[in-house]
Amino acid sequence: MKKAADGTHRSAGIGRRMRAAIATAAVGAATAAAGSASAAVQLTLPGTEVDGVQVAIRYDDFLSYSNALLREIQNTSPTILPKSTYGDYSFATGTGGLDLLLYTGAGTKNRNQNVGGNAALDFEDPASAPAGGASTFDGWWGKNDQNNDGIADGVNGPVSVGNILNYLHFVNPLNSIPVFYMDMNQIGSNASLLFSARVALIDPVTGALVHEWALDTTLQPGDGAFDEGSQALAAGLTPAVTGDSGATYGPVNHNLGSGKADFIAYAPTMDLSLFDQNLLFVVEFHMDGINDGFEEIFLSGAIAVTPPPPNGVPEPTTLALLGLGLGGLGWLNRRRKPAR
Question: Most exposed residue of 84, 98, 167, 258, measured as fewest CB within 10 angstroms of its CB?
Answer without folding.
Answer: 84
